[in-house]
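Q: What does the predicted 3D structure of Cytochrome ubiquinol oxidase subunit I look like?
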Amino acid sequence: MLSTAALLANSTPAQLLPARELMAFTLASHILLVPFGVALPFITLLMHHRALRRNDPVALTLARRWSAVMAVQFAVGVVTGTVLSFEFGLLWPGMMGRWGDVFGLGFGIEAWAFFLEAVLIAIYLYGWRRLKPWTHFWLAVPLPLAALMGAFGIIAANSWMNTPQGFRLDALGDPVAVDVRQAIFTPMFGPEYWHFVVAMLLTAGYVVAGVYAVGWLRGRRDRYHRLGFTVPFTVAAILTPVQFMLGDSAARAVFHKQPIKFAATEIVWKTDTHVPEYMFGRLHPDGTISGGLKIPQLDSILAGFSPDTKVTGLSSVAASDRPTATQATIAHWAFDIMVTIGSVLILLALWYGWCWLRRRDLPRSRWFFRCAAIAGVACLVTVECGWITTEVGRQPWIVYQHMRVSEAVTSTRAGSLWAMFGIVMVVYVAVFGSFLAVVLKMRTRWRIADEGLAAARAELPPETDTPYGPRSEPEPTTGAEPGGSDRTSGGAS
């Protein structure tokens, strides 16, 4: 987020700071849920398919429980996503009023995908014990596709803000002759979309695996925890090196399409060749850099595979057309944190792959499981850092080189926006607190079921451990039916 001092130093509207802070808070909160909305359906169906193909009741138990978490997460995402939708119009009417007809289709696609995903989740949840096993599975297959379609719409809108095209300006400077195809498939769309999708799959995989890594460290070495760890971690480990290459490709696309943003991310002040790479340095307003690790010529090599590659510097444009030194430092640190965590995750994935190829078994070191438990949290940090890099590095533009953030902001008084910010913070704390309380309650009931505490279960009303669907009679608690039925012992919801 932007520093208060840097904003107040500029002659900007008083409402700009609270509008930015409110948008930053809601986006930063919502984006923590996005990996599970986009990727958890895929991981759940992967486990569900394994259960049916191998007639595996443990895998079926995991798939069913993950589907319950997926439903709760989706409900929370409805709240945070709806708030964001309103904020676009309320906080940035200048952008939406002028440019909404050009890039608004992306939001429309996301809305339709959101509606479709809600319907498919309802069908999937209601289908447990009501549909034939394979029929139930195949009806859920479109669910990950709907999630990807929602990501398509959002990234189409964001990539257009970074590289706007598909229109021409009339004499008054208003966009006309909109080409929808060009407005959606902008130069940054491909690099942004695939980098985003793989990041969501990778993050969800590490977070889910991290839950079972903690259980493993606490001595729960049964097949339930082993399988719950192995499947999502394998997905994440396979995608980690892929994500590193996609991230490199996206950074190079920024170098070509948004050179000033690239300069901010790499804190390059003067246009030059043989530009060094700084890890965690700080840019000052006079162009000097303090702190950090300086690696000679590396920035030019990374940008164009040669030390002779010319890298555009921040000083090549007017101060009003580039991020401030503080903003550039924020984007630079966010980018470096993201790259550092990604590099460490590659080592973790290689460790896992080496042990699996040698022994067809998990690593035996407790340090591996400690790192795996932390990996999920680290991935959520990289998601936040990726968003900061994308949005702060684009400053001062809300539509790159066409509209400044200060031109798009609402005319609502700053005091009202600060009050709204406080209310939103209170609401979000309550919403996320409720989400954690529900998930922890579900975990407790599942643990009671797994431990076979009949007396404890008898205190619960019939099937209250199943958070969806009406029931006419209690669920049988013994055995798995022939043919891959999902009736598993111990309450598999």
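A (community wiki): The structure tokens above were generated from the sequence. Confidence is low (pLDDT under 50) at residues 1-10, 453-458, 462-493. The beta strands are 168-169, 175-176, 277-279, 282-283, 289-290, 293-295, 397-399, 403-404.
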